[in-house]
Amino acid sequence: MSQTKKTQIISAAKQLLAEHGIENIKVNDIVKQAGVAQGTFYLYFRSKSALIPEIAAELIGELLQIQREKLSQVVRTSDKIDIIIDTSFEVSRSYRGLLSLCYSGLAINDELSEWERIYEPYKTFIEEILEAGKAEGEVTQQIATSSAAQMMISLIEETTERVHLHEDETEVPHEKEQLRTFLKRALLHV
Amino acid sequence: MSQTKKTQIISAAKQLLAEHGIENIKVNDIVKQAGVAQGTFYLYFRSKSALIPEIAAELIGELLQIQREKLSQVVRTSDKIDIIIDTSFEVSRSYRGLLSLCYSGLAINDELSEWERIYEPYKTFIEEILEAGKAEGEVTQQIATSSAAQMMISLIEETTERVHLHEDETEVPHEKEQLRTFLKRALLHV
Amino acid sequence: MSQTKKTQIISAAKQLLAEHGIENIKVNDIVKQAGVAQGTFYLYFRSKSALIPEIAAELIGELLQIQREKLSQVVRTSDKIDIIIDTSFEVSRSYRGLLSLCYSGLAINDELSEWERIYEPYKTFIEEILEAGKAEGEVTQQIATSSAAQMMISLIEETTERVHLHEDETEVPHEKEQLRTFLKRALLHV
Amino acid sequence: MSQTKKTQIISAAKQLLAEHGIENIKVNDIVKQAGVAQGTFYLYFRSKSALIPEIAAELIGELLQIQREKLSQVVRTSDKIDIIIDTSFEVSRSYRGLLSLCYSGLAINDELSEWERIYEPYKTFIEEILEAGKAEGEVTQQIATSSAAQMMISLIEETTERVHLHEDETEVPHEKEQLRTFLKRALLHV
DNA sequence: TATGAATGAGTCTTCATTCAT
DNA sequence: GATGAATGAAGACTCATTCAT
Hints:
The structure is a homotetramer.
Chain A: H1 2-19, H2 27-34, H3 38-44, H4 51-71, H5 77-94, H6 98-108, H7 112-136, H8 145-165, H9 172-187
Chain A binds a DNA duplex through residues 1-2, 5, 26-28, 31, 36-43, 47-48.
């Protein structure tokens, strides 16, 4: 039951965060939206900025879970990349701008390591895919999986954010295609 | 002469911005550092947040100028990419974190178009390089220059920021190399 | 209990307002005098200028209540006018200058209608007296009660304010007498 | 020539004062409107608040001059009152709200005596009219001319301001008529 | 006289956080 | 656990006034 309150708060925060920026939402807004009292917030979060990592973690977790699921039966790395891009676009759409807000929010608060800790499992997930791809001979040996995973994640994230911020859905397919091409050229054997 | 004051303010702001985040610096700090009065700030900037675009513009301008100069005698796109990466790392080092702070600052203030206006010239510069590379048969026809330029810029920026935030100079050469490989694979003919 | 805080603030504000002008008192002064925190002020008032109407309303309410009471057993309009003048002088003395400050405060903030809404009940009260006087044949039919009430209120208010601002109590009886004569000549049958 | 600058400033201030309140106009607004430099203001006025009395004096002077002129050939006090009311309405219309702003401006600045000094000549002018009316047997002996003059001025001023602030020109004739009746009943023999 | 860039004290308002109930 | 009234530090911004030119 007490978990309910926390969940309500996180949901409310996610919603507001996606609409406005981190600096533009007040604890007051969140609790109002969540339908709980001001003080309740501090029962579950040490401070306002402690909220961001939790949301980020939830987001990444969600993304990871969806992708794990969708990739379970997929074999070719090329297909995996397609799916990763597609799901990223979908998740990013519903959280419009939230990821980069999380990022800047964390960066601002000098909690870089916190951020990395949260991103860790996702990065590992991508690394494993690339590693497997290398083993299969599909992914180039030229690039270190750690760096490549990082660049791949950044590029996908940045592109999805950018595209969605533009609010012009018509260019989505083209940008997605470009991203696909770019990534595959960089990572896969010709 | 009155330009001096504005310059002083921008310099001070750049310095402080690189050290702390945008939300962590006060107008008061900036003017103190700049050696001008509180009111003087508002003589040259409509508000605190109006400062960011100006700094960003200056930064981009600087980057653009340096790269234009260094690339003037270079022919091969591959070499151009090397130089762009190198100079980006250098500029980014001296402005440690400033670019992404500018970005988040702008994103927070919903001034996306302002941000794009500022980035415009740099993006065009990169596009022209890629276009020329296509003409020379060095750059792949597979990718649209506009998208490619955007992705290239994002990737370089994100990587430089990330590497510099880690404050571990030893990994710079490796990351730089990885970035080079990644980009060239994506953009150039094999 | 929470009403207490608001009451404290209004009391403090009334006191300070009577001593200084609206533009000369700071929110800080008010809360210090009231013994509450800075933020508490904004819990009960949207802004500093939102305070004035509330005080004005309270003042008018007080004046109205006193006069209603004192006039309950009085029959002749002439006597009623005497009592209205007397009580106005008394109330005005204890709020020295406050009424006109309220007025200017409102006028400055372009909230004329707000001001009229507040004055409404008092004006109605005076109108009813004049109407009753007309029915009794004591008040002249020459003048419309609405206009007459307005003029009567203005004249009394202006005179009391003026007299009290002079801080020379010796002239009060004379001015009061003059006001009485003036008003009765204007309103009553000879 | 230097008088020109001062005149420009006063004109600009009158205009702005009539549109906004005293507290809402800045020296900057005035000088911009006047087309002079910021510093020029302080060449002619000790401070911002020193401007109000000058404007008030000019206004009163204007009113006085007009009325003196119009009354020069008039004999009956009743007619004089009509003319005074009419001209007051006219002048007040073009300075919509300015008089009361002057008043509150001065009251706020505790310069009551200054205000009275400025009003002095006008009050004397009205007193003389009433005195003459008494001599002619037209004005009642019941009321002291000093008090009566003051009340008459206040009432006219308050009424004109009120009517003009309402911006409903259709009620002007009725209110004017009511004022006329009220004043004549109060001051003249039946 | 005239200018207008520069000043900086002054104040409103916000909002994360606390704590008595 | 839950509440929400109360807190008060913090900071952006204003604007009358000055003064070097």
